[in-house]
Amino acid sequence: MWNELLAITAGFALLTWSAGRFVEGASAIAWHLDIPPLVIGLTVVSIGTSAPEIVFSGIAAWQGNPALAVGNAIGSNIINTSLILGIGALVMPLSVHSSIIRRELPVLLLVMGLVYVLLIDHMLGRLDGILLLSGMVAVVYWIIRVGMKTQAARDPMGKEYARELPTGLGIGKATLLLVAGLLVLLASSRLLVWGAASLATSLGVSDLVIGLTIVALGTSLPELAATVMSALRNEHDIAIGNIIGSNIFNLLAVLGLPGLIRPGPIDPIVLARDYPVMVGMTLAMFFMAYGFRGPGRLNRVEGMLLVLAYGAYQTLLYFGET
Asked: pTM for the whole thing?
C-alpha cells in the first residue's frame, strides 16, 4: 500500500504545480493577445483550475476506470461548495458584488438539472458525453460574450483579475510554462489514476468512493489555493467566481469525457446519495452568495456550517462503506 500512497502523494504535488504553471502560461498568452482580463479570468483561469479534474477524468476513463472519473466530478463539486468555500469564508468573510456571479449561479443550477436528466437512467452514454461537452462549448461562448459586454460596466471581478494576471511574463516563457504544465498534468494524472485504482483494490472499497474522497480532494487543491489567496487579498468575487466556474466545467467536461471515451452504467448510489448532497451544497451556496436584497455575503458562521456539512458527508460515506 505504501507504493500506492507514494504515487498518490506525488501525483497530487505534481498536479497542483502543473495546474498553476498551466494557468499562468495560458493567462499570459491570452493577455498578450489583448483578451480583456475579465474574459481571461472567466474562461482561462476557471478552466485552468479545473484542468486537474478534466485531465484526470479523461485518463481514468481511457484506462478503464470511469467510476474514478464520475466520483472525481461529483466529489470535487461537493468539496468546492462546502470545504473550500467554507475555509475561504473562515479566512475572510466573503462579499459578492459581481453581476456576473449573479448570472453564473442560475446557470450552474440549470447545468445540474441537465446532468440529472441525462443520468436518471443510470447510464453515462456516448450521446450524454457529446451533449455535455457541447454544453461546455456553449457555456464558454456565453461566458465570453457576457465578459465582453460587461467590460464597459467595470465589473469588480474584472478589476480583481487585472491585478492578478502575469503581465510581466514574455510570450516565449508563457508558452514554455503552458506546454510544461500540460505535459506534467498528463504524467501526474496517469500516476494518480494508478495509485487511486490500486489503493481502492487494497482497501477493498469502490473506485467511486476513492474518486469522491481522496482523488476529489487532491484535484481540488488548485481551487483551495486560489480561494484562500483570493480571500486574503480581499478579492472576494474571484474567490467565489472560480468555484462556480469550476463546478460548471466539472459537470460538463469532467463528466462528459468518460461518457465519450468509456460509456457505460453508473452506480445507482450516485444519484441516490452523492448527487443530492451536491445539489444541497450548491443551493446553500446560491442562497448565501446571490444577494437577493443587495450584495451576497458569506460570513464565518456560514463558512463553519459548510465545513461541518462536508464532515457530515464524509461520515455518511464512511458508514456507507462499512
From this structure: 0.89
